[in-house]
Amino acid sequence: MATLKDFRNNIKPNWCPGCGDFSIQAAIQRAAASVGLEPEQLGVVSGIGCSGRISGYINAYGFHGVHGRSLPIAQGLKMANRELTVLAAGGDGDGFAIGMGHTVHAIRRNIDITYIVMDNQIYGLTKGQTSPRSSEGFKTKSTPAGSIESALSPLEVALAAGATFVAQSFSSNLKQLTALIEAGMKHKGFSFINVFSPCVTFNKVNTYDWFKENIVDLEETPDYDPSNRVMAMTKIMETNGLLTGLIYQNTSKTSYENLVPGFKEEALAKQNLKISEQEFDKL
Ligand code: SF4
Ligand code: MG
């Protein structure tokens, strides 16, 4: 059985020292080992951005796609090989700006992949511009007088789009993050996991200390019920989206690939046996 070491390769990440993305890489590797995968049973697809490099830093099948397009590639991969555990990852610019259309439709489609957004509330790779997740008043080179737009609330969007698994974590909380990725990989449907991943080089507002002061951990919220969608939406709004933990899960919806006629077990069996439908029916 594969261990954490088997998901490591010898490529040294070129993220800045202290970048939150390191912990997300480690959490994915730990989760993959702990759910019992072998490296050849995992496919990691990423978009463009500092976070997009992650597909090269994990010993598994990897595909570094184009900007905002990790989800179309990941969905194609899952449809082509249902046996593969597919994980897509990218930044908030990648998933919530250029790729937002794909994000919403992949969520409502409920195809069985895990999607991790490495949310640093800025564009890091291009040296610090305001992103859809930057707060009102946020100053960067692209908004020198402060952003006049409101930040997107990805958890509200995911729930409204019909997500069957919504979670959020913080890159400093490796234990929680690993457990949520594990749960996402086991969930039979689309798993949306937003992760606060501080950009230590360009985002001087949403720092590790800022998150530590502002995050509300659902593990410390008694009577929270992640199967209650209304409670989930209320809690997101009450905390201004700064909650962490498993926010919502619905295990009763069949995942997309299991509803596609040509992908049903019996159809695949016929294909593998290479016999006609009539012959199959006689078996
Ligand atoms: Fe991480 Fe920011 Fe450096 Fe990119 S620029 S590697 S997001 S710290
Ligand atoms: Mg970003």
TrEMBL record:
<dbReference type="InterPro" id="IPR051457">
    <property type="entry name" value="2-oxoacid:Fd_oxidoreductase"/>
</dbReference>
<feature type="domain" description="Pyruvate ferredoxin oxidoreductase beta subunit C-terminal">
    <location>
        <begin position="199"/>
        <end position="264"/>
    </location>
</feature>
<keyword id="KW-0460">Magnesium</keyword>
<feature type="domain" description="Thiamine pyrophosphate enzyme TPP-binding">
    <location>
        <begin position="48"/>
        <end position="195"/>
    </location>
</feature>
<dbReference type="InterPro" id="IPR011896">
    <property type="entry name" value="OFOB"/>
</dbReference>
<keyword id="KW-0786">Thiamine pyrophosphate</keyword>
<dbReference type="GO" id="GO:0051536">
    <property type="term" value="F:iron-sulfur cluster binding"/>
</dbReference>
<keyword id="KW-0411">Iron-sulfur</keyword>
<dbReference type="InterPro" id="IPR032686">
    <property type="entry name" value="PFO_beta_C"/>
</dbReference>
<dbReference type="GO" id="GO:0030976">
    <property type="term" value="F:thiamine pyrophosphate binding"/>
</dbReference>
<dbReference type="GO" id="GO:0016625">
    <property type="term" value="F:oxidoreductase activity, acting on the aldehyde or oxo group of donors, iron-sulfur protein as acceptor"/>
</dbReference>
<keyword id="KW-0408">Iron</keyword>
<dbReference type="Pfam" id="PF12367">
    <property type="entry name" value="PFO_beta_C"/>
</dbReference>
<dbReference type="GO" id="GO:0046872">
    <property type="term" value="F:metal ion binding"/>
</dbReference>
<dbReference type="InterPro" id="IPR029061">
    <property type="entry name" value="THDP-binding"/>
</dbReference>
<keyword id="KW-0479">Metal-binding</keyword>
<dbReference type="GO" id="GO:0045333">
    <property type="term" value="P:cellular respiration"/>
</dbReference>
<protein>
    <submittedName>
        <fullName>2-oxoacid:ferredoxin oxidoreductase subunit beta</fullName>
    </submittedName>
</protein>
<keyword id="KW-0560">Oxidoreductase</keyword>
<dbReference type="InterPro" id="IPR011766">
    <property type="entry name" value="TPP_enzyme_TPP-bd"/>
</dbReference>
<dbReference type="Pfam" id="PF02775">
    <property type="entry name" value="TPP_enzyme_C"/>
</dbReference>
